[in-house]
Specification:
The complex is a heterodimer of chains A (495) and B (95). Chain A has 18 helices and 11 strands. Chain A is an alpha/beta fold and 495 residues long. In chain A, helix 10 links the parallel strand 7 and strand 8. The chains are: A alpha/beta (495), B mainly alpha (95).
Chain lengths: 495, 95
């Protein structure tokens, strides 16, 4: 036991137990991950590796563990999505415009993780400014999923938290942080056979997270199993006076409710999520998921969320509008990239045109247009009103059911060379996850089976606001029934 | 609703983005595809609906109107591309 290959197969909960029982040290565990990370640089899961910082943190953790003073995540090596500001450590959101930016402060979520004793091993790659569903817009290059189809083509790990998900699946981090504005935790989790939860809007502080769309952005964990997601979210969540939209609701112990089962729970199946042309393998896994929950004592109820089809168009007004406003701060004056110009306006234009990737520029332009004089009411205000209707659909549904079950994605992961050139076709990837962000609700993706090509498929659970507990309970039941074999147990990836 | 090239250039100026001539037509195509997709929203009757302005319907907490931060000029400036006399340097804006 305790060869490096065994160490990187442990879950967060198992490694925590091993550290407490002194079966191995945090330095040993961290070193195993650092080696795996260095060995698999070809995946491009990290923008920045932090071997020195990680070992320093691990040594400190070992001292505490030796004294029996280990904190909740003491000595556990995490990947941090490069959208979380980390004090003195380059933070770019995978954008050229923030290259070299070293925040003089720490985001609230990563500060909480540090205070819980976690070790940071690297800044995970992602889509440029979190805009993308395939991790192909990063200034630092595509992330490649560890999974392979029979044709051997390089596959997307999903996006925007693609580096985080790929690292957790492949054993290059024990768990990771992500952020989710329209599916950016749940879709990569589904594509890589990992667990990802976007908590209720307001559950985690957004302070120090590079803003994309402030009314939709939420942080959450990506992990190997449901238990790990519960214990990591517990540490990330909580009220923060520095974020006025963070919630004062107490964070319950998610780990404690994990095994309470679903007996008596009413599970809603929304008919609008059965998309035209949806693959038989996706429909099949969805039906299986409902059957598993029923077998465990839940009641399955057909429900309707009638405004579902308007979610994506609503999102593609509101998210770019908020982004165009949030990204106005990148001006080449105060931090990040500067491309000189003769006048101040020219400096702005040169900097922003060179610093933002193509997808970001598209969204900034759409956002600027829908907010511009004469179009604000027709687009922005209209979308805010439809957003109300989408949120009301869920409120009505949750009078009849306790949790909603849907597929997490309309397809399995696609090859990097199969990504559509039409932006609207690309946006359809998020059709099943976006409504949850618009309504501000918690949603979780749990690996449940395989596509016809042998790639992971995820099921999504959606709960009422601040009822993450019900997602963990139902997620645990799905996980046990599915008996999903994760990447690390299937492959000889680490020799 | 379709955007012509003149409008694209105007939005780009508003957004402080410089679009070279060869990028205007592909951008026009992309933006019009997106706008066409967004136009579906006009089917929805929203005459009696209040807009949802934030990510939640919870109340917004108030805090005391006091200074909670400051005296960190070095930190504020440490990432700036060009600094002089404790200030950000930009091209001349006033003749």
């Amino acid at each position: 036991m305790n060869s490096k290959n065994d160490l990187i197969r442990l879950t967060l909960a198992e490694a925590r137990e091993g550290l407490r029982q002194k079966k191995f040290s945090s330095v040993e565990l961290t070193q195993a991950y650092l080696e795996a990370m260095a060995h698999h640089r070809g995946m491009n899961a990290y923008i920045l590796e932090l071997p020195e910082l990680a070992l320093e943190m691990a040594k400190e953790s070992d001292k505490r563990l030796a004294k029996g003073e280990g904190r909740a995540l003491e000595g556990l090596p995490l990947a941090i999505k490069d959208i979380f500001c980390t004090e003195g450590v380059q933070t770019t959101a995978a954008s050229h415009i923030l290259e070299g930016f070293k925040p003089p402060y720490e985001s609230t979520v990563t500060q909480k993780l540090k205070d819980a004793g976690a070790v940071f091993i690297g800044k995970a790659n992602m889509d440029d400014s979190a805009m993308g569903s395939a991790n192909i817009t990063s200034y630092y290059g595509n992330v490649i999923s560890p999974w392979k189809r029979e044709d051997g083509k390089d596959l997307t790990p999903g996006g925007s938290s693609g580096g985080s998900a790929a690292a957790v699946a492949a054993g290059l981090a024990i768990a990771a942080t992500g952020t989710d504005t329209g599916g950016s935790i749940r879709q990569p989790a589904a594509f890589t056979g990992t667990v990802g939860i976007k908590p209720t809007y307001g559950r985690c502080s957004r302070w120090g997270i590079i803003a994309f769309a402030s009314s939709l952005d939420q942080a959450g964990p990506i992990t190997r199993d449901v238990r790990d997601a519960a214990l990591l979210l517990e540490e990330m969540a909580g009220y923060d006076p520095k974020d006025s939209t963070s919630s004062m609701y107490e964070v319950p112990s998610f780990e404690k409710v994990l095994n309470q089962g679903v007996k008596g729970l009413r599970v809603g199946i929304p008919k609008e999520y059965r998309l035209e042309g949806m693959g038989a393998d996706i429909v099949n896994i969805w039906e299986k998921g409902a059957a598993w929950l029923k077998q465990a004592g839940a009641e399955i109820v057909d429900i309707s969320l009638p405004h579902t089809k308007y979610s994506l168009p609503t999102y593609y007004v509101l998210a770019p509008a908020e982004a165009s406003s949030n990204l106005a701060r990148y001006d080449g004056v105060r931090y990040g990239l500067r491309v000189p110009g003769r006048t101040l306006d020219e400096l702005y234009e040169n900097t922003r045109s060179e610093g933002f990737g193509r997808e970001v520029q598209r969204r900034v332009l759409i956002g600027t247009y829908v907010l511009s004089a004469g179009y604000y009411d027709a687009y922005y205000l209209k979308a805010q009103k439809v957003r109300t209707l989408i949120a009301q659909d869920f409120q009505l549904a949750f009078q009849k059911v306790d949790v909603i079950l849907t597929p997490a994605t309309p397809t399995a992961a696609f090859a990097l060379d199969e990504t559509p050139s039409d932006p609207v076709v690309m946006y359809l990837n998020d059709v099943l996850t976006v409504p949850v962000n618009l309504a501000g609700l918690p949603g979780m993706s749990v690996p449940a089976g395989f596509s016809k090509e042998g790639l992971p498929l995820g099921l999504q659970l959606i709960g009422p606001a601040f009822e993450e507990s019900v997602l963990f309970r139902a997620g645990r039941v799905l996980e046990e029934a599915a008996g999903f074999t994760p990447f690390l147990e299937r492959s000889k990836f680490h020799g | 609703m379709s955007l012509d090239q003149k409008t694209i250039k105007r939005i780009a100026t508003l957004a402080r983005l410089k679009l070279s001539d060869d990028r205007i037509e592909p951008m026009q195509q992309d933006l019009n595809r997106i706008l066409h997709f967004i136009d579906q929203l006009s089917e929805v009757d929203t005459s009696q609906v209040t807009p949802m302005a934030g990510g939640s319907t919870l109340f917004m907490p108030m805090r005391k109107d006091v200074v909670t931060d400051g005296n960190c000029v070095e930190k504020v400036l440490e990432n700036a591309p060009e600094v002089a006399c404790n200030m950000f340097v930009v091209p001349k804006v006033v003749e």
